[in-house]
Amino acid sequence: MADPAELSARLVAELTEAGDLVPQWRAAFQAVPRHRFVPDTVWVQDGDRRLVPVDRADDEARWLELCYANDFVVTQVDDGVPAEPGRVGRDISSSASRPDVVASMLAALEVEPGMNVLEIGTGTGWNAALLAERLGDDKVVSVEVDPAVADRARRVLWDAGYEIAVAATDGALGCPSFAPFDRVIATVAADQVPHAWAEQSRPGGRVLVPWTTDFHNGALVSFTVEPDRTMRGRIVGNVAFMRLRAQRGRHVSLARDVRHVEQARCSSTGLHPYDVLGEYDVSLAVGLKVPRCKLIVRHDDGGAYAVWLVDPWSGSWASLEHGPGAETFPVRQHGPRSLWHEVEAAYHWWEDLDRPTADRWGLTVTAEGQHVWLDDPGNLIGPSCPDQGGQ
Ligand SMILES: C[S@@+](CC[C@H](N)C(=O)[O-])C[C@H]1O[C@@H](n2cnc3c(N)ncnc32)[C@H](O)[C@@H]1O
């Protein structure tokens, strides 16, 4: 079986070579053994993309490889609630984040010695330990909403020699008793960014947040906190995280939410689904313009795939079929919204804006709410109103 120290050295070398691990964080990555933070039972996808457990006691070599792969490790499903008999699908509810994402986010946090940091989403405690290794135990506070996950992280951190405060509470509220902070890092995604993180920051502080829409998960925003606690920031990276628990919204199930297929409105489109869904800059922009639209893609063995757009709140859905080599694609839509038409309109809106790249978008968050802007904080962009007409 491979030696954890060798696996760790291999991972550090890989991250360094890829440019994800900057010199300032290398010693911390070398000092904190990731496998000490990963629970004995983790979850992997089987051939049918179902999450199944891998136990250290059954296959320690595989478990160790998972701990030191440059990938996220699923450490809890379904909020830790055992599955009811017959339930097959499980949902990820806690994980150890991908090492390259952790390294890039820590670099983007731009910490200096002496700074106080608040982490939202303790999970395994690995990221908190990395922060403590660089800044000192008394400079790091971490908040985890799941009491069992928080308890475990506290114990593991303690056993590994890190006396870090871990609060079991809703991270959207921050951690006022330890404020003010110079840096806040969320390792969990928000679609509505909590203003408490700015209220508990020092002016000039930085707040780093994976920001998500229903359509597109994957925008890291680096905010600066202004003296009046307004926070403004731009998209600086592409990272996908699970959402804050209270912002998870509705779970979409095609079996439950796609109804009345025989009554669907049928049409076709010449817009290739890859041009909209496969391109990061486009899919990000579509997510800004088309709210409450969840995206599911289903591949079959022959290279064909179907794109499903579902708004479980209004009961609207759309599907688009893609066959290999096809140039037009059949579309079906049902419900008060015509979701594919909204997505197509958002694509043309993005084209008309001169195809902005992700780094041109920014976000302003105040106590009153949040606004998206393009290039300049004065150039606000609102989401479109869901189409109520139907077609
Ligand atoms: C991707 S994991 C965090 C990874 C972690 N930083 C690590 O090093 O392993 C996200 C964590 O955020 C937690 N979480 C979800 N909603 C939260 C909330 N409202 N407040 C605090 N933590 C939350 C989840 O329970 C989960 O453990």
Automatic annotation (TrEMBL):
Keywords: Cytoplasm, Methyltransferase, S-adenosyl-L-methionine, Transferase. Belongs to the methyltransferase superfamily. L-isoaspartyl/D-aspartyl protein methyltransferase family. GO terms for molecular function: methyltransferase activity. InterPro entries: PCMT (IPR000682), SAM-dependent_MTases_sf (IPR029063). CDD domains: AdoMet_MTases. Its EC number is 2.1.1.77. It is an enzyme of class 2 (transferase). This is Protein-L-isoaspartate O-methyltransferase. The lineage of its organism: Bacteria, Bacillati, Actinomycetota, Actinomycetes, Streptosporangiales. GO terms for biological process: methylation. It is found in: Cytoplasm. Its main location: cytoplasm.
